[in-house]
Amino acid sequence: MTESRDNYISPLAGRYAGAQMRYLFSDQYKFRTFRRLWLMLAEAEQQLGLPISDEQLAELRAHLDDIDFAAAEAKEKQIRHDVMAHVYAYGLVCPTARPIIHLGATSAYVDDNADILIFTAALDIIEARLFAVVRALAAFADRYKDAPCLGYTHFQPAQPVTIGKRAALWLQDFADDIDDLRYLRGSLRPLGCKGTTGSGASFLALFDGDAARVQQLDQLIAEKMGFSEPVDVSGQTYSRKTDARLLGLLSGVAQSASKFATDIRLLQHEGELSEPRQAAQVGSSAMPYKRNPMRAERICALARYIITDALNPALTAASQWLERSLDDSANRRIAMAEGFLACDAVLNLVADISGGLEAHCDKALENLAAELPFMATENLMMRAVKAGGDRQELHEKIRRYAQNGAAELLRLIAADADFGLDEQELAQLLDPAAYTGVAARQVQRLLTRRIEPLLASYQGQTIETKVEV
Description:
Blueprint: H1 11-16, H2 19-24, H3 27-47, H4 54-62, H5 69-79, H6 82-93, H7 107-143, E1 148-153, E2 156-162, H8 163-187, H9 201-206, H10 211-224, H11 241-270, E3 273-274, H12 294-309, H13 311-318, H14 329-356, E4 358-359, H15 361-386, H16 391-401, H17 406-415, H18 423-429, H19 439-456
Antiparallel strand pairs: 1-2, 3-4
């Protein structure tokens, strides 16, 4: 057996999440980002007058990627400190620059700033996934905006809607998620460079008491990271409420996805919608004829994980001590990475279903026809009253006739002179399109006013939708 088969591998990495998201949370990406941050620090310190040579900076730039993980792991076992172990490994390949690596900084400088860079890149992937979903659902909603179907409240038959109108509910939720993501990403700020308790004391010593240069260093680091400014104040770390906000966003996406997938599961049971299916897909080990909503079920399972995972950073933020305590570290290593990996997997599945979602309009009309006579009785009664009928007497007759089922209800009404309706008039009153209200107009309004401008605003990457398992 290979080593990978002898050790636990998170299903999020082994089965579900996409390659780009997995890479962002890999050791290679994390510790390469550490080295980029050490380079940024040295460049900024040189720019502000510290004696750091161009040769030292060139050496740091030349060794951003050649990370000796074995050397770092061996050192960490000896000293029990992962950041200093990687300072040591970087110094092995940068002997000239070794004296100035991590100069004045504390571990949170690389840990927290790297996380913000990773999370920002991860949000870009989540945004790309969301836009794939919105694009597919918009096309589906537009295509079926006029297609009548039975509405449900409490999963009991209710007033008709359209297939596209129902899809518009999902679409609107995901559009809201994009708005939330953009707001959150726009408000993120890195830690910057603030020292062991956030006071900047170590840098004040480096700059001989020049507070202006300490502030400049903080600003330069943020700009080199691609941000307009760092957080104004911090302890040793940035506020852990930032993590809670990030996982709160992912929880919101998961809520949208679970609602979408739950509806698909219910409607696949009714025969009105079905998720796409591979030709050789097996629905059951015991019942080969089955066609289960496997993707939708997986969405619900992973979404539930994300929603509960969002409690982790919330509890961590609530329990931090003063300027720093380390009970956050082990928890957030798991909670943050797996929250993003799970959300990536969920949205990949949502995009896959949305792009191949099958609407069975004939079945939807069949289900609607079975219930429509009951829903049409109010209109039938109002028409008969206008023709001179007694509302109370007609109401009682409808109540009695309805006990015999939909088909008999219509026959009895057509035969009752008090209603004054023949079968042709009844058929006209039972046109499904007459009972969907302004559903189609609502869909068009959403598409025109919100979704089309939103789609036009996206300038990011396109990520392939690919369900491996």
